[in-house]
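ligand=magnesium ion
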Amino acid sequence: GTDSPVACISLEDVSFGYEEEKMVLEHLSFEIKTGEQVTMTGRTGAGKSTVFKLLLGLYRPQKGCVKIYGQDAYLLPDSIRRCLFGCVEQSFKRVPGTVLEQITLSDPMISREDAVEAAKLAGLHEVIAGMEQGYDTPCTDALFSQGQWQLLSIARAVAAKPSILLLDEITANLDVGTEQEVLYALRRAGENRTVVSISHRLYEKMGGRELVIG
Ligand code: ATP
Ligand code: MG
């Protein structure tokens, strides 16, 4: 009806292919409401990660429209996009610099306090604070364990306090002990946010609506 609030995310009859003659998504429509927790499932190659790229406005669909709070995703300014989305991927992309810079990516809009808050939410603050140089420790490949890198990527994703969290297969390589820690971090990170995850065992355990792609 007219008084229903605008959807957080909506796809309206979207068809998209990286190449014109080879469509990946065809006539895809769905809506995700603000604060909803949704898991996308579907066979490998179905186009789940492609949906994320469309949400992030990296491509424009050949047909239909991807909308974020009613605005065309492809036309959103980068500055707004960064406030809207936090992304966690399977592998952490380390940048040169300190632990702090891993979290802030040197974004002047993200304060040290924001970074500490994000690390606390991810369950990594104690570990970082326990280092001799704390958040100013130069970051090397050996500094964190595999699970801790994943927690660090969660901290990075929430540092700018995004309203939408996108999680792409993030627990695929974790052992059972670490998985639990990441699960707790994700629960905290997902509070008061819209969360769209791509199927992985962990998030399925957490429930949320299933959205089948393909
Ligand atoms: P998986 O579960 O394996 O991660 P997925 O559902 O995430 O799969 P996508 O990565 O979205 O699938 O890929 C969908 C299709 O688009 C595949 O056929 C893939 O080869 C193709 N594809 C993905 N990225 C590109 C690209 N940058 N250029 C061309 N084709 C691409
Ligand atoms: Mg994928």
